[in-house]
Write a structure and sequence with these properties.
- The structure is a single chain.
- The protein is an alpha/beta fold.
- It has 2 helices and 3 strands, in the order βαββα.
- It has a 3-stranded parallel beta sheet with strand order 1-2-3, sandwiched between helices.
- The longest helix is centred in the first third of the chain and has 15 residues, at 17-31.
- It starts with a strand and ends with a helix.
Length: 80
């Protein structure tokens, strides 16, 4: 099974409850053989997660949200 978490902030387990929960649940699912990825609209500030594939938009000068939505669409198409 493929699991994709979508976050607005960076994926870092010490930054807040949603990030910590995503980290723990994602790691647990990965340990049971599932393919786990997290897409974050933030392009910086992530912690390295060996069990969770981290996806984020490339930093751009045109605004993170605009480029991020395009990146999210691409990721969703790949996860079909």
């Amino acid at each position: 099974m493929k699991v994709l978490f979508v976050l607005t902030p960076a994926l870092h387990p010490n930054s807040g409850g949603v990030q910590m929960s995503t980290w723990k649940i994602g790691s647990w699912l990965a340990s049971r053989g599932h393919e786990v990825a997290a897409f974050s609209f933030a392009s910086e500030g992530h912690a390295a997660a060996s069990a969770i594939r981290l996806l984020h938009p490339e930093p751009s000068t045109g605004g993170e949200r605009t480029g991020g939505l395009g990146s999210l669409v691409e990721v969703l198409q790949q996860f079909e």
